[in-house]
Amino acid sequence: MDLIEIHLDGKRGAFAPGESVSGTVSWQLDAPADAVEVRLFWYTRGKGTTDVQVVKSQHFDVTGASGKRPFKFVLPPEPYSFSGRLISLIWALDAVAQPGDRSQRLELVVGPGGSEVLLGEPV
């Protein structure tokens, strides 16, 4: 069974814009990979069309069925993670072993003070 894991330094899951997100990606696969890619992206969930934007990625050429590599991204100033009644914007990291569709996702919060913006909430 394919196993891909994303571990963040400091075990944090919430960040302010401009902060660094760093950690390691590790994999134990049934069939060898040619490459592993870690992608920082955001996507929308809710009513309407789903939008997806890959912001940054790191590509690792690998050989074999197992390994571990460090990664680091500096978060952009926007957009913020938010939740509303109709739509939410979620930040995430994906680790993808290629070829194939072997992947793992880890959701993040990116916002002022490391907090998600809640739309429609009283101030």
Provide structural commentary.
The structure is a single chain. The strands form 2 sheets. Strands 2, 4, 5, 7, 8, 9 and 10 form a 7-stranded mixed beta sheet that branches. A 3-stranded antiparallel beta sheet has the order 1-3-6, with no helix packed on it. The protein contains no helices and 10 strands. The protein has one domain: Immunoglobulin-like (Sandwich). By secondary structure, it is mostly beta strands. Helices cover 0% and strands 59% of the residues. The protein is globular. The protein starts with a strand and ends in a 5-residue tail after the last strand.
How is the secondary structure organized here?
Layout: E1 3-8, E2 14-15, E3 20-28, E4 35-46, E5 52-61, E6 66-74, E7 82-83, E8 87-98, E9 102-110, E10 117-118
Parallel strand pairs: 2-9, 7-10
Antiparallel strand pairs: 1-3, 3-6, 4-5, 4-8, 7-8, 8-9
Q: What is the total tally of β strands?
A: 10
N-C termini distance = 48 Å
Q: Count of DSSP helices?
A: 0
* CATH architecture annotation: Sandwich
Overall spatial form: globular
The CATH topology annotation reads as: Immunoglobulin-like
> Low-confidence parts lasting 5 or more residues at pLDDT below 50?
none
Radius of gyration: 16 Å
**Name of the CATH first level:** Mainly Beta
Mean pLDDT: 94
For the biggest sheet, the summary is: 7 strands, mixed
Order of helices and strands: EEEEEEEEEE
Helix content: under 10%
Strand-residue proportion: over 45%
Q: Into how many domains do the coordinates divide? A: 1
Structural class: mainly beta
